[in-house]
Write a structure and sequence with these properties.
Layout (H helix, E strand, L loop, with lengths): L1 H10 L1 H21 L12 E7 L5 H15 L6 E9 L2 E8 L5 H15 L10 E2 L3 E13 L5 H17 L4 E7 L4 E7 L1 H6 L4 H11 L3 E8 L2 E7 L6 H5 L2 E5 L2 E4 H4 E7 L16 E7 L4 H16 L7 E7 H31 L2 H24 L6 H39 L1
Antiparallel strand pairs: 1-3, 1-4, 2-3, 5-13, 5-14, 6-13, 7-12, 8-9, 10-11
Helix pairs in contact: 2-12, 5-10, 10-11, 11-12, 11-13, 12-13
Length: 426
């Protein structure tokens, strides 16, 4: 079989050369298309279901949320394992799928099952899917440099401007905010005043909820004009809340400010974000989607940040806290340098040992073609170009060279012996 293959190759040299050139061109194309990252993604193929039910103990969360979700998500196809975690006010369910399962197909199946499971959960409890990111998807962190802006205003800029802009970048699954204070209107109810006016806390809650809304009316026609009637009732400032009527006594309205005091404050925080010991900062974490090119996504994020900074208040800038592209580029350049050094050294060693440029050329040509074929296989199997995969290619060059030297030297020896025998016969 090998003899026939060699004979066929010798008889069709142009076809062999064209195939080699085609493989090399295909490898160059695969190198350009293959995702680049510093580390391989070895995380499990999972879908996260997150449920929030604030104020409940872990035991209540386990019994009424986590357990119903875990038991009813078990029938999904291609599921290997399901893990549930319950904590104060929150539940996490991790559905682990088989490695060859498409992640978006898996998310669709989970959503279908959640539509049924929703009926088994307590009222007003709604499970949601986590972002379609991986365990190594945290590719970029940033923070705001705003010395003259308070933390509440910084968090508002992050949540309502910067975050939405960066989420539009191709390949970004989620932008998670951290630090600062989430601004909120706080109503501090006086229980003695509630008792005096014979009101309950629920009366105050219903009044605030009912008065923070827009309502629509019907069309009103006058002469040849038609007007759409609607009531504008959204809360815009503290005074709007203070003047909300809770009840009436003898035609006299009892307002929120009569039973409570109002203030602008921040939501309860479970931690802070400090930058190099200089104080608290506000920022975000960019999470990459499955199968995306980390290096390209980071470049797109940096370009988007330049656009976003133009709309920020004067003196506010976006600074980089963590940028994986630096690690990616340094790791790739290091491995590329090693590959080039190996190619040069191996070529010199072949020429010195064989001292026959045509034989050395055969081995030198097969090195880039072998590397190109390696990248074709990386692209075909969905493996990114990272430290592990490129190091494997670098190590494999030694094996390729050893095989090539043995085969070429053996062929050279047989040809030399045959020529010597022919000359002796003559």
């Amino acid at each position: 079989m090998v003899e026939k293959l060699i004979s066929l190759s010798l008889k069709n040299r142009m076809v062999v050369l064209l195939l080699a050139a085609g493989l090399f061109a295909w490898g160059i194309y695969s190198i350009q298309k293959n995702p680049i990252d510093a580390i391989p993604d070895l995380s499990e193929n999972q879908v996260i279901v997150y449920t929030e039910w604030m104020g409940r103990s872990p035991q209540v969360i386990e019994d009424q949320v986590t357990y119903p979700l875990v038991t009813n998500l078990q029938g999904i196809p291609k599921v290997k394992n399901i893990r549930g975690t319950s904590m104060f006010g929150m539940s996490f369910v991790y559905i682990i799928f088989e490695d060859n399962t498409d992640i978006y197909w898996a998310r669709t199946r989970v959503l279908e099952r959640l539509n049924y499971t929703q009926k088994l959960l307590p009222q007003d409890v709604s499970p949601t899917l986590g972002p379609d990111g991986t365990g190594v998807g945290h590719i970029f962190w940033y923070h705001l440099d705003a010395p003259n802006v308070d933390l509440g205003e910084q968090r508002a800029l992050q949540d309502w401007y910067i975050k939405f802009a960066l989420q539009n970048v191709q390949g970004v699954a989620e932008v998670a905010s951290f630090g600062g204070f989430q601004k909120q209107y706080q109503i501090v109810v006086d229980p003695h005043k509630l008792t005096y006016y014979n009101l309950t806390l629920m009366d105050v809650l219903k009044a605030v909820k009912a008065n923070n809304n827009d309502v629509g009316g019907r069309k009103f026609e006058m002469t040849d004009m038609a007007y759409i009637i609607r009531g504008l009732g959204y809360i815009e400032n503290i005074e709007d809340i203070e003047n909300i009527t809770v009840s009436t006594r003898n035609s006299i309205p009892i307002k929120i400010k009569d039973v409570a005091s109002l203030q602008m404050g921040g939501d309860l925080r479970l931690g802070i974000f400090d930058y190099d010991g200089t104080g608290e900062v506000v920022g975000g974490i960019v999470v990459m989607r499955y199968g995306e090119n980390a290096d390209q996504v980071i470049k797109s994020i940096k370009e988007k940040i330049k656009e976003v900074e133009k709309g920020l208040p004067e003196g506010v800038h976006i600074k980089v806290s963590y940028d994986r592209s630096t690690l990616i580029e340094e790791a790739i350049e290091s491995v590329k340098g090693t590959l080039m050094e190996e190619l040069i050294v191996v070529s010199l060693v072949i020429i010195l040992f064989l001292f026959h440029w045509r034989s050395a050329l055969i081995i030198i040509i097969q090195l880039p073609i072998s590397v190109a074929v390696g990248f074709i296989l990386l692209e075909a199997f969905g493996i990114s170009s990272n430290i592990m995969s490129l190091t494997g290619i670098a190590l494999a060059i030694g094996v390729v060279v050893d095989d090539g030297i043995v085969m070429v030297e053996n062929s050279y020896r047989h040809i030399a012996e045959a020529q010597e025998k022919k000359s002796n016969t003559l």
